[in-house]
Task: structure prediction
Amino acid sequence: MAVAIILFVVVMGLILLMVDRGRRLPTWVVTLAFVGPAVAFLGFGLVYPAVRTIYASFFNRNGQEFIGLDNYVRAFTQSEFQIVLRNTALWVILVPLVATLIGLVYAVVVDRTRFERVAKTLVFLPMSISMVGAGIIWRFMYEFRQEGATQTGLLNQVLVWLGLQPKQFLMDTPENTFFLIAVMVWIQAGFAMTILAAAIRAIPDDIVEAARLDGLTGIRMFRYITVPSIRPALVVVLTTIAMATLKVFDIVRTMTAGNYQTSVVANEFYTQSFRARDAGFGASLAVILFILVIPIVIYNVRQMRLAEEIR
Result:
């Protein structure tokens, strides 16, 4: 800690000294002094690991034998890993759409109501819980006991009250994947609601008044005025949640550890790399995950630039 503080003071002192004597130094030297450390840290902490991972993905489990694209072929052809890719696709499609839809509807319904603050706070609360904490909470919610025993899981107790048999929510495939997805939706709906509520509040009053004079109310107002006006915010929410969902690990690891056909790419990367000790295949899964994120990031950046140009 002391070394880090001293190093920070020394670096900042050198930078300030160079700025103070900026007239005597070339511009590129001053620029390098400010940008250089950040670029160096990015290269060491981001670029080098990415290149090293891509390189390792072309080797076997021990990293000693070059096997080309065999790890990627295995990831896309073996049935167990096709299930992993299928689950990941379900997560990326359903979580952003459902969470954004719930957040949007909720933001419109509670906007300017008497209990607006309390209602929005209740929906946003899950965002303050870590994904590990959320996974533990919902694992207790889904807890299963044999029929006739006292149910400790809330959902199974409700089923018993309704005269139904208790269900193994986390073991029965393929619906168990959807029960895990519900946890991520529960977390992300508050984020979507917060961003979209702010966007709705930012719609100019004159546009709303003009639409009302034209006879738009209710659903038609929502469809033709609200949604088009907040389109940039919708894109940001959808892409942000999609990127977070692609990297989902905590919920799956905490609730099922990827068993019962619930694993996703991020969890499988961990399992293959640190449990099965297959470094090459684990690296290939990490590369696949990285490739899946790139189009979403590019689309998000393009949409943000378009929004800035419109402004």
Remarks:
- The longest helix spans residues 79-110.
- The mean pLDDT is 86.
